[in-house]
Amino acid sequence: MKTLFMKKQILSAVLLFIALVPVFSVQAQTRSKVSSSFPADAYTSDVVTRWIDMQLELMRTSSPFIGGLPPSRPFAYTGIALYEAVVPGMPAYISLYGQLTDMPAMPRTVPGLAYHWPTCANAALAAMNRDFFPNASEVNNAAMDSLENKLNVVYKMEAGEEVFQRSIQYGRAVAQLIFAWSKTDGADSANAAFIPTKGPGLWAPTPPAFAPAFGPYWGNNRLFVAGSLDGTVPDAPPEYSTDPTSKYYRMAKEVYEISQNLTADQTALALFYRDKPGFGDGHYLSILKQVLEQEKPKLDFAAIVFAKTGIACVDAGIGCWRAKFQHNQQRPIMYIREVLGHPEWNTLFDTPPFPDFPSGHSTIAGSFTEVLKGFFGNNYHFTDHTYDYLGMAPRSYNSFDELAKEIGDSRVYAGIHYRYSCEKGCEQGVKIGKNITKKLRFKK
Predict the structure, then answer these.
(1) Which of 136, 241, 251, 420 is buried deepest, with most CB atoms within 10 A?
(2) Within a 10 A sphere around the Cβ of 432, how many other Cβ atoms?
């Protein structure tokens, strides 16, 4: 009897356990949904490329662009905000707080509570673009609203109401802090009044517009990475001379002779990197988007690449502008007209209003491509379709070095830079990119 009784008790306990398993399972699943998150690498980077598309449209159509500031600035700050909005969902990575100059501490996620990282990213990217483009048209503002809402419809279904709302709040909080930080970098003073020093070989406003210097104090802007310019100052350009046997004379003569024999492809290349109409140095953001679309990385990787390339572009621009206004070198058009004796000679398009050495496009290209090589290797094939919408033929590359060289060559073909300025600018940019890679840590 006793044995039979014990067997009945055991059977009852087993039946009770079986009956309770679904309950425990549901409770465990519910707790999991509330207390843990899928990591950022569980999601696609679709939210990133779609917001890059939007930012490029804003760069192209918001005129004058934020008072004339370079597009690399919102590119960089937006990428940093994206990274900080999702890095809590990247266990092997760390915040850039304490590494980027004067960057504020970021808000903390709540331990034990779940976050939906695409929602965090969407909220941060939407907020940054609205803040950086206050002059956006009604059409563009509506487009931003539409993009944010369209993505949120999907994300809310994936995350559930509670996690969704928490994630939006977190992404917006990050963006608010990053944008406030951006307003203290010195950009507001970059275009203060400037009277150029006059003298042989020194920069002066160029025809036909004779526009005043753009960004004469841009080189004073705050660097993102302290020490990013260490050891990067380019060798000085050849000493000014009107002697036909001098390096300076030969340097200018090369520009003139190239202009007299431009091929159709050289002309197309020069116009492709004129970037006007277009995005200015936002062209690099367009290239980044195309690489990301080709690679289709997860959200975490896209955030890292976005942040690091933007940082590289901004610090390279600052380093370049410091050198420009230190050397204050005249542009080829003045030398060719006044010294070589071709008073009617013109560039392929108007010369930008700042000194020649070093080339800004070349310096930024060197830094940008150096960072991309660290992610994808140098021998990387892609085709740049940035200006398909203008009817320009796309340009294909088999390496990032090839891309950087073409960008420098394009400025010589246009007649707006000496070759030396482009070569030394690219070298400076590469060194800046290497410094950033050496000094900036993303991984723990």
Answers:
(1) 420
(2) 32
Written as one letter, the residue type at 310 is G
Give the DSSP H or E segment for 280: none
CATH 3.40.1190.10 for the 190-439 domain, yes or no: no
SS3 state of residue 93? strand
In angstroms, the Cα distances linking 312 to 86, 114, 394 are 20, 33, 25
Which residue matches tokens 């709302």?
Answer: 165
Between 55-69, 193-207, 283-297, the lowest mean confidence (pLDDT) is in: 55-69
**What residues are paired with 44 via a beta bridge?**
298
Q: What is the pLDDT of residues 143-197, one digit of tens each?
A: 999 999 999 999 999 999 999 999 999 999 999 999 999 999 999 999 999 999 9
pTM equals: 0.91
Peptide bond into 208 cis (omega under 30): yes
Max CA distance (Å), the chain? 122
Strand partners, 93: 443
| Whether the bond into 277 is cis, omega within 30 of 0 | yes
Phi/psi of residue 399, each to 5°? Answer: -160, 160
Q: What is the DSSP secondary-structure string of 385-411? A: -TTGGGTPPPEEES-HHHHHHHHHHHH
CATH topology of domain 40-182: Vanadium-containing Chloroperoxidase; domain 1 (1.20.144)
Whole-number Å distance between alpha carbons of 301 and 66: 29
Percentage above 70 pLDDT, the chain: 90
- Contact of 79 with 289, CB cutoff 8 Å: no
Residue spans per domain, the chain: 40-182, 190-439
- Do the Cβ atoms of 227 and 250 come closer than 8 Å? no
Prior bond to 244 cis, omega within 30? no
Which of 144, 378, 419, 47 has its CA nearest to residue 255? 419
Q: Does 302 or 5 have the greater pLDDT score?
A: 302
443 close to 240: Cβ distance less than 8 angstroms: no
